[in-house]
From TrEMBL:
SUPFAM superfamilies: alpha/beta-Hydrolases (SSF53474)
Protein name: AB hydrolase-1 domain-containing protein
Lineage: superkingdom: Bacteria
Pfam assignment, any one: Abhydrolase_1
Coiled coil region boundaries: none
Domain AB hydrolase-1, chain residue ranges per copy: 24-268
Gene3D superfamilies cross-referenced by the UniProt entry: alpha/beta hydrolase
Transmembrane segments: none
């Protein structure tokens, strides 16, 4: 694996690559407030082994990418999407398979509509429609009570001292458990992930704050879900508390030709190790021959 810093406009993103540059490229896009660490190196290496050039990267304000003061992001939500194209240009990648989780999957949908010439396929995990749904589509279920409570009470809940390493890691571990399903990652592994993410991030307060307060929607999308014309795979946890399974079912139904693979017991999270035997072959098959 090779780590490098890539200039993207007024920022610098930290990216890491696995595999041979001549193989079909897969870009892994993490969720909000998540660094590349949420795509474990072992997962990336296993995805690269069958002949894929795998890239993971830190969003702005996460990991080793450009950081801004907490509460004062020097960018809008638009940049998190346009950063992807700039990153691909910097890495010399013309066409890519996008694999995104939550916000990363929303970015993938937008790029499939705005830049179909650069996108070979999309894989959408733990997400919902980021583009207009077909007229008359039925409403989708809301988040679980524990997620609604987490967001509605956020303004009243005391925030940890993000400079306190132990307190910050404890809070991240607790938040991951809130979003998780019954297929749980080994607690020691979860703490190791949280520790690695904390230690790699320049300003952890910014990483846990700025993505949630971004503004700016950019120009209107040039279409809706029915206009996504790239091959689409939907991987969705059966116990996702943020976007219950009907959200994934709707994506698979409303994006032409999309295929749904349910992930038993998985919540709103990057794929736990227990379902890698489902996730890895599905992505490899989806990204073959394109």
């Amino acid at each position: 694996m090779t780590e490098q810093l890539v200039a993207v406009g007024d920022a610098t993103l930290c990216a890491e690559t696995f595999g041979a540059p001549g193989d079909p490229a897969i870009l892994l896009i993490a969720g909000a407030a998540s660094s590349m660490d949420f795509w474990p190196a072992e997962f990336c290496a296993a995805l690269a082994e069958p002949g894929r050039f795998v890239v993971r990267y830190d969003h702005r304000d996460t990991g080793r990418s450009t950081s801004y003061p907490a509460g004062q992001p020097g960018y809008t939500g638009v940049e998190l999407t346009t950063d992807v194209i700039a990153l691909l240009d910097g890495l010399g990648i013309d066409r890519v398979h996008l694999v995104g989780v939550s916000m990363g999957a929303g970015i993938s949908q937008e790029l499939a509509l705005r830049h179909p010439d650069r996108v070979a396929s999309i894989t959408l995990m733990a997400t919902s429609a980021a583009a207009p749904r077909p007229k008359g589509a039925p409403p989708l279920p809301p988040p679980a009570d524990r997620i609604q409570a987490m967001f509605s009470d956020s303004g009243d809940q005391p925030q940890p001292d993000w400079t306190d390493r132990t307190a910050a890691i404890d809070r991240l571990v607790a938040d991951l458990a809130t979003f998780g399903g019954s297929v749980t990652t080994n607690p020691a592994e979860t703490r190791e992930l949280a520790t690695r993410a904390y230690d790699r991030t320049a300003d952890f307060a910014a990483s846990q704050t700025n993505h949630w307060i971004l503004t700016g929607d950019g120009p209107p999308l040039p279409g809706g879900l029915a206009d996504i014309a790239v091959p689409t795979l939907v991987l969705h946890g059966t116990e996702d508390p943020m976007f219950p399974l009907p959200h994934g079912e709707a994506l698979a139904r409303e994006i032409p030709g999309a295929r749904l693979v349910p992930l038993p017991g998985v919540g709103h999270e990057h794929p736990p190790r227990q379902v890698w035997p489902i996730v890895l072959p599905a992505i490899v098959a989806h990204t073959a021959g394109q």
